């Protein structure tokens, strides 16, 4: 999830100058922060009369075996332990998704489809390059200044090649316009919302998305208040427009999903003091 590739987490003056120089010849959607949400019309079609479903049980089985919550509530992936058999099963699942006529599905089925495709592709690309310290070290995206795998066309759906950036910023974000998307797609990083221990399912989407939102908001990497100052994940800065377009709107969103202890600490807070993000790989350390 999340690929603001051209801006550092805490920019200094020199970095800001470099950013201004880059802005002169980089697309506006990439020069500062994250790409804009711009719908790809090709994928806006759905069939609400369709009874077709997509089987995600293979991915759920993989996640159940290899995603393990640690003592802090962070879900880590045991990439090193993935067997050859399960690697083949993951590839088979990805092939199954790529053979699906997603345009013929209903909206909920489509949303589960694209979210699981994003997450399964991310796991697969990490496995292909493991061991790495960070997903940003997998520099396979096109473009001289690009980093990470997000821009590379990793899959073909209905004959159309798509990248992780396409799935997140041209399909999921603009079509569903739901900030909970950011809690669903996983970028294989410590700072990212958890990769769940099960696949997303069309008939359980709201419950799964709400649970993912609560899990992240109430974890220190999502939001924390220290001595009356609020520090949040950089996700809320990069994608502020998705969370209402202002710091106050972000804080209102946090309150919506905050457990009582955090909600009490947020009382009276109306601004964000800082943000950060940990790009370290979400693997199990040995």
In words, what does this structure look like?
The chain has 286 residues and is mainly alpha-helical. It has a domain at 37-202. The chain contains eleven helices and seven strands. The chain has helices at residues 13-23, 28-31, 57-66, 84-98, 107-129, 164-176, 181-184, 205-217, 235-238, 247-257, 260-265; strands spanning 67-69, 75-77, 153-157, 160-163, 223-226, 229-233, 274-276. A three-stranded mixed β-sheet has the order 5-6-7. Strand 1 and strand 2 (75-77) form a beta hairpin. Helix 5 runs antiparallel to helix 6 (164-176). The chain is globular. The chain starts with 12 loop residues before the first helix and ends in a 10-residue tail after the last strand. The relative contact order is 0.15.
Principal-axis shape equals globular
Largest sheet: 3 strands, mixed
Q: Give the helices and strands as they follow along the chain.
A: HHHEEHHEEHHHEEHHHE
Low-confidence stretches: 5-32
Task: Return the structural class.
Answer: mainly alpha
Question: What's the rounded overall pLDDT mean?
Answer: 91
Helical stretch tally: 11
Q: Considering DSSP H and I runs of 4 or more, what fraction of the residues is helical? A: 25-40%
Alpha carbon gyration radius: 19 Å
Distance between the termini: 25 Å
Number of strands: 7
| Percentage of residues in DSSP E strands | 5-15%
Strand order of the largest sheet: 5-6-7
């Amino acid at each position: 999830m999340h690929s603001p590739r051209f801006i550092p987490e805490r920019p200094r003056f020199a970095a800001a100058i470099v950013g201004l120089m880059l802005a002169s010849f980089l697309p506006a959607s990439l020069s500062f922060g994250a790409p804009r949400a711009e719908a790809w019309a090709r994928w806006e079609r759905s069939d609400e009369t369709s009874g077709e479903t997509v089987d995600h049980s293979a991915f759920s089985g993989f996640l159940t075996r290899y995603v393990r919550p640690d003592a802090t509530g962070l879900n880590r992936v045991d990439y090193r332990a993935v067997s050859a058999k399960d690697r083949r099963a993951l590839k088979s699942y990805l092939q199954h998704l790529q053979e699906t006529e997603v345009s013929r599905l209903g909206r909920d089925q489509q949303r589960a489809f694209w979210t699981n495709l994003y997450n399964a592709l991310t796991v697969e690309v990490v496995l292909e390059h493991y061991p790495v310290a960070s997903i940003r070290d997998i520099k396979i995206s096109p473009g001289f200044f690009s980093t990470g795998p997000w821009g590379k066309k990793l899959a073909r759906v209905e004959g159309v090649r798509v990248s992780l950036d396409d799935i997140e910023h041209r399909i999921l974000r603009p079509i569903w316009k739901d900030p909970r998307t950011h809690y669903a797609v996983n970028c294989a990083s410590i700072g990212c919302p958890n990769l769940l221990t099960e696949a997303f399912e069309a008939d359980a989407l709201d419950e799964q998305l709400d649970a993912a939102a609560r899990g992240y908001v109430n974890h220190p990497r999502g939001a924390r208040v220290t001595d009356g100052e609020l520090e949040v994940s950089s996700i809320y800065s990069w994608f502020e427009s998705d969370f209402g377009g202002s710091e106050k709107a972000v804080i209102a969103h946090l309150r919506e999903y905050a457990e009582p202890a955090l909600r009490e600490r947020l009382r009276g807070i109306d601004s964000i003091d800082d943000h950060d993000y940990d790009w370290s790989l979400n693997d199990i350390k040995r």
